[in-house]
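Consider the tokenized backbone below.
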């Protein structure tokens, strides 16, 4: 009996060793490209690391100086507020809601209709951010499609503008929010489409036969059955939107007058325009903290296991 237990233990240890050997390349890659940069980011946030000047030659540990500077930086507070606004309207109300609506409208439709709508929406998602940024800059320009259509209709509808609107200067945050919704809705649409297709049609038909309205059926049956997908999608889309940089920087550069200066853009300007890498990495930790808070909120308060 003791010999059998010893052989079983030896076999288990042998299996664990083999598993560790097979997984070791993945652990090495994870350490090199994730753990090491993360540790270095935390370390550099407590230094005076810079690209030019005396600080670039004399790297020093400055303790919490960068964080004290952040507490006295009004632009940082403004960037945090702008980031939250951008995430709320672009990710939560925009991509997630629009993705659910499109997926719900496609439910039960024929394959040709679903394929056409799917290709049209996904085409925006697979387009590089920098291309989307330039495309929307032209689209919203003085001679762009939006202004041409509005000024043409304004000849017949007096409540529409009669002259071209400088969208990127008068409504910069609205412009970048709409552009990001247009680009990112496809991810939410595909996630909700898969979840909605898994709901048995018999359940919804039974609710309607019992007298439930279409809205009550959606609210009391459809949404609870895809709650896990909703939370997972909210988490992923929120974290992705928190890090949006290229789209905003291409369209507005954080302007005008800092009106679209979200945390990723402000972090870039401090690190690579002002050459203060230490302060820039400290700002990146604020962005990381906001992402962690969103994640904990979704998982704990919406009571869904991810």
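A designed sequence for it:
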């Amino acid at each position: 009996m003791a010999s059998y237990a010893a052989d079983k233990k030896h076999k288990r240890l042998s299996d664990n060793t083999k598993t560790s050997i097979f997984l070791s390349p993945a652990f090495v890659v994870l350490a090199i490209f994730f753990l090491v940069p993360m540790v270095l980011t935390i370390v550099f946030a407590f230094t005076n690391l810079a690209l030019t000047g005396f600080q670039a030659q004399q790297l020093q540990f400055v303790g919490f100086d960068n964080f004290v500077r952040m507490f006295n930086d009004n632009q940082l507070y403004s960037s945090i507020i702008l980031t939250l606004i951008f995430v709320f309207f672009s990710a939560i109300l925009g991509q997630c809601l629009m993705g659910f609506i499109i997926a719900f409208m496609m439910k039960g439709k024929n394959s040709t209709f679903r394929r056409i709508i799917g290709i049209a929406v996904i085409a925006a998602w697979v387009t590089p951010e920098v291309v989307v940024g330039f495309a929307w800059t032209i689209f919203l320009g003085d001679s762009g499609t939006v202004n041409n259509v509005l000024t043409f209709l304004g000849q017949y509808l007096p409540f529409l503008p009669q002259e071209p609107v400088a969208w990127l200067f008068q409504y910069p945050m609205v412009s970048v929010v709409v552009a990001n919704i247009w680009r990112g809705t496809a991810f939410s649409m595909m996630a909700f489409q898969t979840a909605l297709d898994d709901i048995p049609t018999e359940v919804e038909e039974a609710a309607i036969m019992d007298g439930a309205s279409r809205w009550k059926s959606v609210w009391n049956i459809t949404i609870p059955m895809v709650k896990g997908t909703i939370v997972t999608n909210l988490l992923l889309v929120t974290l992705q939107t928190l890090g949006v940089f290229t789209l905003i920087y291409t369209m507005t550069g954080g302007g005008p007058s800092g009106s679209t200066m979200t945390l990723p853009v402000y972090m870039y300007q401090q690190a690579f325009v002002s050459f203060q890498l230490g302060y820039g990495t400290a700002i990146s930790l604020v962005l990381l903290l906001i992402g962690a808070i969103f994640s904990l909120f979704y998982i704990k308060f919406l009571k869904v296991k991810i």
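The chain has 15 helices and no strands.
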